Write the structure tokens for this entry.
Amino acid sequence: MIRKALIGSHAIAMAVKLANVEVISAYPITPQTIIVEKIADMIERGELKAEYIRVESEHSALAVVYGASAGGSRVFTATSSHGLLYMYEMLWWVANSRLPVVMAVVTRSIGPPWNIHTDHQDVLSVRDSGWIIGFAENVQEVLDMTLQAYKISEDRRVLLPSIIALDGFILSHTSEPVVIPEPSEVNEWLPPRKPLPFKVEAGKFFAVGNLGPDDVTMELRWYIWRAMERAKYTINEVSLDYAKRFNTGSPAGLLETYRTTDAKYIAISMGSWSGDIKEAIDILRDEGYNVGLIRLRYIRPFPLEELRDTVSSAKALIVFDRAVSMGHQGILGMEVVSATNSKIPVKNIIAGLGGVDVSHHDFSNIIRGFIEEYESGLSIEWSIPEWYMPWMIKESEER
Amino acid sequence: MREYIIISRGGQGGVTASRILASAVALEGGWAQAIPEFGAERRGAIVKSYLRISDKPILRHSIVKTPHGVSIFSSKILELVDINTLTPPGIPILINSRGRIEVKDRTVYTIDATGIALKLGLVIAGWPLVNIPMASAMAKVFNIASLDNIIEAMGEYFRGKLLELNIEAAKLAWSSVG
């Protein structure tokens, strides 16, 4: 085990190396990140024995790893923003074919306007496709979740692809100390991928993705839905086992709770800004507010039972969203309202779109305001989300 | 926890400097974050990077707004950026400059990083490579990491002759800054 500073993109590459991935395919031009550049470097130096296939688009990148995964290989690709959108059709092919592909998505805003900074609109646009989707909070978790993704996706109870989402720049380009597990210990924990019941290989005739009768189509969807339910248990099991074995400090489970035990007000978030929210929670606790945070580590499968249990004695919830469903609410906000059957008032904050920086001071002010509104009986006004854009207030005051 | 801002021109290696400092802090068993603020990053454009160091895990990931020190890779940048909009008076600054520089209400450290780079022939495409002397000087004046760990961290970024020259640059900068 060694500890050294890595940027998030290199932590992903390190996990790919530790997992002994056999086939990597990538479109190496913008909006690609340095993840695939680092992997190419590792292969060139002979540190990773893998086939690296450069292609002309992200659609093809996912098609290539689709084929390699169907052939039994452990595979990887990475993309971001518009590249993920360009993959959209293939995402469904991979999930509906039950292939354990693992992909890193560096979350970035969708243009126009062109913007290379983070929000969650890109990755949440593939929410319903049958991929497991996890969100990392820091660089350590980027590495840990990527390694865990192989074990979870390849588990015979699951056989579904995984996305590891990491915030663009905030994690992909930020360097932090990371504990790197010993390769020999990872090899023991994550042995080579077990072959599928069938094998796609040259010279053998085999139909994949053929025309299906309607009832078979529906039945296959039901199998995916059930596999996603089982994935909840597998994620818990794999992440707990990993935490015990490698002790890197990342929490296990579908969600992480922070000071929620006696909390009357609970914030809910995903991704790197959850750390800033934890600092805000500490400030508010010192001021005497009874607050805590739930950080979703996975949005698919959705941690329904854990979330319901944690919020069961809360008075009100505040959900911080870095993505919005135009015409309705923030995407995480919608998910939380549906999970709690609208029994608990939920205030939904849309913030940080296009990479707008939100600090622990912003979060503590927002959460303080939320508690004051609830206690003054103003939660009735929470039916529409609030957009947090302090610069607009400043501009209108100046006018 | 302490926080720092590095202001450099695109191509001067400000981002690498902050990453080497974070690596050095990691080698000392501490916690660190090196965050580049990218945008229209072009050669010559003003680029900011941030550094956080702590003896505990760092939770926040937002940009640094209240630094304990600022490092400026070119004295010309002072003519383009109002330092008081970045950090309140009183916060010390380190500037790459041959001569002494006075800035109202501030402790100013100067280091002739350009001179060190030119002396050692650390020049690429006409640009003196000032990032290592600047990182080393920063580590010393702001008490971020030891020279030994700066040198060890550099091994992750450079090899061969370039590494040797940069080690020399780091040593010269360390001994010449107050």
